[in-house]
C-alpha cells in the first residue's frame, strides 16, 4: 500500500511536468520527435529478438531523475541547452509511455495499479493550477521524487535472487541492446530528420547523441510497465536485471560522451 502511494505521487509529478513542459510545443518539436524515435527503435529491436513478447514496452521509457542526475555531475562542462533538450525529451517520453500503458496494457491494470499510474498522472495533468503554483508544486515534489521515491522504487525492484543464466537470457540481453543501442540510434536519427525538415535545435547532433546515450537509463516507468506486462516472476526479474545493467552502462557512457563533446 505504501509503495502504491509513492508510485502515485511519482506519476502525479509526471503529469505536472507534462503539463508544464508542453506549454511551448513549437520550440520543443525536435526533442519531442527525438523522444518518439527513442521509443520506436528500442521497441523494434526488442521485438526483433523476442518476437511476440509482451514485454517490449519496457525497453521504451527514459528515467528523468536518473538522466538529469548524471547530467548534473557534468556541471558547466556541458552546454546548458543540453539539459533543456533532455528534460523536454524525457517529459515527452513520459507522455508517450503513459499512452502506450493505457492503450496496450490497460486491460491488465488492476484498479490499484491504474490509480497509481494513469489516474495519478491524469490528475496532475488536468489539475487547474496557476503557472506559479504549478512551478512551485513541481519544485517541492521534484526533490522528494528524486531523492526518496525513486530510490525506494529502485531498491524494491532490485532482483536480489538471480541465477547466472539470467544474465544471458534473451529478455535480459534484449533489454540491454534495445536500450543502450536503440535509444542512441532512435533519438539521434529522428532528431536529425526533424532538424533537416526545418526544426530548430540549440545543441549539436553529437550532443543529441549524448542525450540519447543517457536516455538509455530507464527504471521507474519501465519497472512499472514490466510489473504489469510480465507473466511470471522469472520474466520480471530478467527485465529488472536488464534495466539495471543498462542504467549503469548508459549512465557511464553518456557521462563520458558529453564530457568529451564540445558545446555547440
Question: Mind explaining what this structure looks like?
Answer:
The mean pLDDT is 88. The protein has helices spanning 2-21, 29-49, 64-74, 80-105, 111-126, 131-157, 170-180, 182-196, 205-214, 220-229, 233-259. Helix 3 (64-74) packs antiparallel against helix 4 and helix 3 packs parallel to helix 11. The protein has a single domain (2-259), classed as Na+/H+ antiporter like fold, CATH 1.20.1530.10. By secondary structure, it is mainly α.
CATH architecture: Up-down Bundle
Structural class: mainly alpha
Q: What is the share of helical residues?
A: over 70%
Strand content: under 5%
- Terminal CA distance reads 47 Å
**Backbone shape:** globular
- By CATH reckoning, the class would read Mainly Alpha
Mean pLDDT, to the nearest integer, reads 88
Query: Could you tell me the number of beta strands?
Result: 0
The total of helices stands at 11
CATH topology call? Na+/H+ antiporter like fold
Low-confidence parts: none
- Mind telling me the C-alpha Rg? 17 Å
The main sheet comes to: none
The tally of domains stands at 1
Question: How do the SSEs run, as a string of H and E?
Answer: HHHHHHHHHHH
By CATH's scheme, which homologous superfamily applies? Na+/H+ antiporter like domain
Give structural attributes.
264 residues, 73% helix, Na+/H+ antiporter like fold, 11 helices, mainly alpha, globular
